[in-house]
Amino acid sequence: MKTTNGSPQGTTNATKGSPFSGRPKEVQRRSPQGTTCRSPQGEAKSRNRPGQAGLTKGDARGVFYDLFSAEQAAELAMRATLLRGLQAWLAASGITQTRAAATLGTTQARISDIKRGRIERFSLDLLVRLAGRAGLRPEVRLAA
């Protein structure tokens, strides 16, 4: 039986409505000289872009400062640091997600979000509380 989008029942067409629908996937890798693309048949193609050799480096504080306002970037950088700390704690402890959830006072689904790096699902205050419960002793330092 087919669904309304034409895919077999039980599956979805993830690219439906996407500007890339119907196109074969291409793997792209950027280099200072240009972009190297691989066609579906595996043959390499090179596209040089004018002016690409003179790219400027981003903000030394991190990519968040290149993409967001200073206030948003500062919060995202703190959240990312806390999330990475919790990921490292989970990996080093070797406990199950269920046991980690009990230790941190949250659900297994939230632990899964931490492991997958789903930063958008966590506020700064929640990450601080979780890090404290994990024994990571989060602290804030201000720099002028």
TrEMBL record:
<dbReference type="Pfam" id="PF13744">
    <property type="entry name" value="HTH_37"/>
</dbReference>
<feature type="compositionally biased region" description="Polar residues">
    <location>
        <begin position="1"/>
        <end position="18"/>
    </location>
</feature>
<dbReference type="InterPro" id="IPR039554">
    <property type="entry name" value="HigA2-like_HTH"/>
</dbReference>
<dbReference type="InterPro" id="IPR001387">
    <property type="entry name" value="Cro/C1-type_HTH"/>
</dbReference>
<dbReference type="InterPro" id="IPR010982">
    <property type="entry name" value="Lambda_DNA-bd_dom_sf"/>
</dbReference>
<feature type="domain" description="HTH cro/C1-type">
    <location>
        <begin position="86"/>
        <end position="141"/>
    </location>
</feature>
<protein>
    <recommendedName>
        <fullName>HTH cro/C1-type domain-containing protein</fullName>
    </recommendedName>
</protein>
<feature type="compositionally biased region" description="Polar residues">
    <location>
        <begin position="30"/>
        <end position="39"/>
    </location>
</feature>
<dbReference type="GO" id="GO:0003677">
    <property type="term" value="F:DNA binding"/>
</dbReference>
<feature type="region of interest" description="Disordered">
    <location>
        <begin position="1"/>
        <end position="57"/>
    </location>
</feature>
